[in-house]
Amino acid sequence: HDRTMQDIVYKLVPGLQEAEMKKQREFYHKLGMEVPGDIKGETCSTKQHLDSHRNGETKADENSNKETSEEKQEEDNDYHRSDEQVSICLECNSSKLRGLKRKWIRCSAQATVLHLKKFIAKKLNLSSFNELDILCNEEILGKDHTLKFVVVTRWRFKKAPLLLHYRPKMDLL
């Protein structure tokens, strides 16, 4: 599922997005199911509201204020799903720790190595995420590195998924 490509297609084909949302709403109503929130939130009036601002029209009414707050609420509930995504394989590099049940994850490219440490520590019931090192190409990654940075600098010309190893922290001093 490529969101960027989907956005480009929606911009190139007039009315496609509205037609797709309408079909999806009809589908859920036909089955008697509740329409998911992301489909409910898509309205033609939001697009018209944004287009009127682009054309220099500055008509402020109650509906535009409601739409703006709905857009903000929808953005707040996005949880970085619309960000660029990174596929990762997390493997254990030590006999002292067990492997994850599900070692394949997909998350935002804005996530940091610290987020991964916390995720792994939570899944393995470790007392602290500080007990872990995460490595890429046998090089320890800094906790503030984003996954995008790791992909660009450490995983340059290799294919997805990004292979990361974790192990207990080693004190060298």
UniProtKB/TrEMBL annotation:
InterPro entries, per the entry: PcG_RING_finger, RAWUL
Pfam family, one: RAWUL
Protein name: PCGF3 protein
A GO CC term assigned to this protein in UniProt: nucleus
Bias kind Basic and acidic residues: ranges: 48-71
Renumbered residue ranges of the record's region Disordered: 36-81
Main subcellular location: nucleus
Subcellular location: Nucleus
Domain of life: Eukaryota
CDD domains in UniProt: RAWUL_PCGF3
Gene symbol of the encoding locus: Pcgf3
Domain RAWUL: 103-167
Alphabetized UniProt keyword annotations: Nucleus
